[in-house]
């Protein structure tokens, strides 16, 4: 049975508004910091966050996101619809999808053909994990080659981190192999702030070490003991990260939660947090 968009929104509003800026959270700490703010048109959400309800009611969920205020989303598949069908639903809700997660091991020609229909501009490989340095190096070579193909077709290809890229494999960090073994021209970076912090890294340092290559942030929060929570509900100092890297002109701030209790609540909390943040 299709979900009721109105009931989903009412539930999100009732839960989300009360939770956006509780005293003692990062949201409260950031609220009065400065005059910089994220333009609403740069706030996006990774649809993987909403996969459980997109599978049940694609049209209603995208309409609910539009009502929250989203005008951008990052794709992770089209939920059984053709690229043209999915694009039609996005257009109906005045939503664009400038970025999409793909797998470079799939048919790149088909990926590019679909991306042109969907209006994507950036393709992002979201996950790889290998047990040897040789396997990582081989992957990095494939990533650079795929980036060349994407660039020639008018797209940019990126890599999205988790935490394991910061742990040495046979004495070499996969993150270093990726950033040194690919070129800025062919491969950009999408930094997942939760996983970077979870891996013991300072996201600001990662940006400074890769100036000009970081185009997106995935914005999801973390408790002190490592639990994933909605933006503004944990201890990650997003205001500090955004302020210190503002000159990099990050193109999208993408709300995400891998396993939210209520996806639309997460979507609303994330949008409101980023839209109201001052730093």
UniProtKB/TrEMBL annotation:
It comes from the Bacteria. Keywords: Isomerase, Signal. Residues 63-244 form the Xylose isomerase-like TIM barrel domain. One of its GO terms (molecular function) is isomerase activity. It holds the Pfam family AP_endonuc_2. Residues 1-28 form the signal peptide. Gene3D superfamilies: Divalent-metal-dependent TIM barrel enzymes. InterPro entries: IolE/XylAMocC-like (IPR050312), TAT_signal (IPR006311), Xyl_isomerase-like_sf (IPR036237), Xyl_isomerase-like_TIM-brl (IPR013022). This is Sugar phosphate isomerase/epimerase. It comes from Kibdelosporangium aridum.
